[in-house]
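Input structure tokens:
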């Protein structure tokens, strides 16, 4: 069995532009937000030997920072 792991710092950014008309008057604008946080992963796997070939089967679980639920965007 093998176990891999990783840690890091990540930055997210969301941008949106909008436009439309309100009572025949055009409008447009944009909004953006950024956030940073710690990211990490763990990846356990099992290694099988098949003659001269190594076969590795595993999964990776990764966690990334997210925009706070209470953040008002737009």
């Amino acid at each position: 069995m093998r176990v891999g792991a990783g840690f890091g710092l990540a930055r997210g950014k969301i941008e949106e532009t909008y436009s439309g008309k309100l009572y025949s008057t055009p409008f447009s604008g944009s909004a953006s937000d950024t956030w940073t946080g710690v990211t990490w992963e763990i990846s356990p796997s099992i290694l099988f030997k098949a003659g001269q070939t190594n076969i590795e089967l595993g999964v990776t679980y990764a966690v990334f920072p997210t925009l706070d639920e209470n953040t008002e965007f737009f």
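The longest strand covers residues 25-50. Residues 2-63 form one domain.
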